[in-house]
Design a protein that fits this description.
This is Mannose-1-phosphate guanyltransferase alpha. Belongs to the transferase hexapeptide repeat family. InterPro entries: GMPPB_C (IPR056729), Mannose-1P_guanyltransferase (IPR050486), NTP_transferase_dom (IPR005835), Nucleotide-diphossugar_trans (IPR029044), Trimer_LpxA-like_sf (IPR011004). Pfam families: GMPPB_C, NTP_transferase. The protein is of the alpha/beta class. Helix content is about 25%, strand content about 30%. The strands form six sheets. Strands 14, 15, 17, 18, 20, 22, 24, 25, 27, 28, 30 and 31 form a twelve-stranded parallel β-sheet that branches. It has a seven-stranded mixed β-sheet with strand order 5-4-1-6-11-8-12. Strand 9 and strand 10 form a beta hairpin. Helix 6 packs across helix 7. The longest helix is centred in the middle third of the chain and has 21 residues. It is elongated.
């Protein structure tokens, strides 16, 4: 009998994601388009490549109506059941999994993938599953080597170079531990549910103990956490490291975390270059005769209209009903639904919000430092940049009209 697999993708909720404003005001961050597809679409389509996949669950605490349309369309498109499970409150990365354990185990899967939605990588899930079966442990996590300077922003870990066993795990350490970090992609056997339950039971036991003793000072670290809030990293990975239960699978490919609009623009480019390898039909082409000149990797929605004299790319993504006028130049940008870019305008290193309009001979540009707050220029929803106006390294909140040039400003 074939062993079934299910996948769970953590999508978070509206209490987080303030760093993603103003792009997350009206669109949940997981549905923000990267390379023309919703952010969550990339891990979902990667899950589709796992053999014997029974279903995919999205777990988060956004309102169900925000995901209803997307979930039904992606289920039809990929011919695999995708369900959105709404948490009543945040339960932590492991607690959310445990909260829906009965639904997740409906198909009696032998393996459960757990992915974070705000991770951008090539998701080598079938290879990871094979490695996991070979290790014979409870869980295998995707890891990658990063620079020693940036490692402390993530969960750092030490693994046995031969057996790949996870020997030590620490979340965002104060001192350097290792240049190997956790990518936020895992595969587990159903034993993970017992491990999560053990954490809750242990915490309940300590809470009861605390009521009759003076351990307050010792317990202060866990006192604030409810028994049903379980974090995967601190509560599961750290305690189980070195116990022959957890293993690592190293990716040699790209990996980024999508916390800010700047990183979303960088990751859109990474996904576009991945399309070149496995979905070349999604990329636009044109040499300036009948179609616009296309340079490098570019996605153009079928409903977008681009003037043949425009030049676009590299790393450009045009969403539905975008209108690009004559002589326009677009480089490294995401242009969202229903935007109009008029003749001879230029957009470089920017994100242009829904229903916005950029006037003739205007420039919307930035330095392209994806990590800096004003490293890319962002126009919120329904922003109008009038003719011959220059907007540099700025963030413009929704429903603004710019009739004078601005530089390095946040326009509220």
């Amino acid at each position: 009998m074939e062993e079934k697999v299910v996948a769970v993708i953590m999508v978070g909720g509206p209490t987080k994601g303030t760093r993603f404003r103003p792009l997350s005001f009206n669109t949940p961050k997981p549905l923000f388009p990267l390379a023309g597809q919703a952010m969550v679409h990339h891990p979902i389509s990667a899950c589709k490549r796992i053999p014997n996949l029974a279903q995919i669950f999205l777990v988060g605490f956004y309102e169900e109506r925000e995901f209803a349309l997307y979930v039904s369309s992606i289920s039809n498109e990929l011919k695999v059941p995708v369900r959105y499970l709404r948490e009543d409150k945040p339960h932590g990365s492991a607690g959310g999994l445990y909260y829906y354990r009965d639904i997740i185990m409906e198909d009696s899967p032998s393996y459960i993938f757990l992915l974070n939605c705000d991770v951008c990588c090539s998701f080598p899930l079938p290879d990871m599953l094979e490695a996991h079966k070979g290790y014979g442990g409870m869980g295998t996590m995707l890891v990658i080597k990063v620079s020693a300077e940036s490692a402390n922003q993530f969960g750092e870990l030490v693994a046995d170079p031969t057996t790949k066993e996870l020997l030590h795990y620490t979340e965002k350490p104060e001192t350097f531990v290792s240049d190997l970090i956790n990518c936020g992609v895992y595969v587990f056997t159903p034993d993970i549910f017992t491990a999560i339950q053990d954490v809750s039971t242990h915490r309940e036991g300590r809470a009861n103990l605390r009521r009759i003793s003076s351990f307050e000072a010792l317990q202060s670290a866990t006192r604030t956490l409810p028994t049903d809030f379980v974090r995967l990293d601190q509560d599961i990975l750290s305690p189980l490291a070195g116990k022959k239960q957890l293993y690592t699978y190293e990716t040699m490919d790209f990996w980024e975390q999508i916390k800010t609009p700047g990183m979303s623009l960088k990751c859109s480019g990474l996904y576009l270059s991945q399309f070149r390898i496995n979905s070349a039909h999604l990329l636009a082409s044109g040499d300036g005769t009948k179609n616009a000149t296309v340079v490098g990797n570019v996605y153009v929605h079928p409903s977008a209209k681009v003037h043949p004299t425009a030049k676009i790319g590299p790393n450009v993504s045009l969403s539905a009903n975008v209108r690009v006028g004559a002589g326009v130049r677009l480089i490294s940008c995401i242009v969202l639904d229903d935007v109009e870019i008029k003749e001879n305008a230029v957009v470089i290193h920017g994100i242009v919000g829904w229903k916005s309009s950029i006037g003739k001979w205007s420039r919307v540009q930035a330095d392209g430092d994806y990590n800096a707050k004003l490293g890319i220029t962002i126009l919120g929803e329904e922003v109008t940049v009038e003719d011959e106006v220059v907007v540099i390294n700025s963030i413009v909140l929704p429903n603004k009209i710019l009739n004078v040039s601005v530089q390095e400003e946040i326009i509220l």
